[in-house]
Amino acid sequence: MLEGKAMVEDSDMPVKMQMQAMSFASQALDLFDVFDCKSIAGHIKKEFDERYGSGWQCVVGSNFGCFFTHSKGTFIYFQLETLKFLIFKGASTP
């Protein structure tokens, strides 16, 4: 678990939640093949939905682009081993 150090590239999450995100990512890498990004992302999303309520999104891969709006305090983008992880909770509209 967390054999390779995770490197946070950007985040507005509380530190405790960041640590949980990296822990869930490490667990997913232990459970799934590194090329099965869809299952890795699904595992992380499920864990976040269970712990912090529904509405979380997770993108995992080595090369992707994105544009999104997120709720304050719910965003992290980090690298672990060869993969990049983007986790956020979508912003609600009034």
UniProtKB/TrEMBL annotation:
- Kindly report the protein's main subcellular placement as a broad class: cytoplasm
Record's Gene Ontology CC terms? cytoplasmic dynein complex; microtubule
- InterPro entries from the entry? DLC_sf (IPR037177), Dynein_light_chain_typ-1/2 (IPR001372)
Q: Could you tell me one molecular function GO term of this UniProt entry?
A: dynein intermediate chain binding
**Which UniProt keywords are present, listed alphabetically?**
Cytoplasm, Cytoskeleton, Dynein, Microtubule, Motor protein
Quote the subcellular location field of this record.
Cytoplasm, Cytoskeleton
**Entry's Gene Ontology BP terms:** microtubule-based process
Homology family: Belongs to the dynein light chain family.
Protein name (Swiss-Prot/TrEMBL): Dynein light chain
Source species taxonomy:
Eukaryota, Viridiplantae, Streptophyta, Embryophyta, Tracheophyta
